[in-house]
Amino acid sequence: MANIWHPLEGVQISDLGEKRFLFKFFNEVDIHRVITGAPWTFNNHLLIIHRI
Length: 52
Prior knowledge:
- This is DUF4283 domain-containing protein.
- It holds the Pfam family DUF4283.
- Residues 1-51 form the DUF4283 domain.
- This protein is α+β, with helices and mostly antiparallel strands.
- It is built from two helices and four strands.
- Strands 1-2 form a two-stranded antiparallel ribbon. Strands 3-4 form a two-stranded antiparallel ribbon.
- β3 (40-42) and β4 (45-47) form a beta hairpin.
């Protein structure tokens, strides 16, 4: 996903198990762009993105 989003300051992706992943962004602009650019898919699966 980082290749698609092109974050300015990178993104850290953690596998939480049970088909859940945590995306940690280091720039507010990147977060805003990803959230407002939804819906996103990966391998034909819809990504549910929620800010925590």
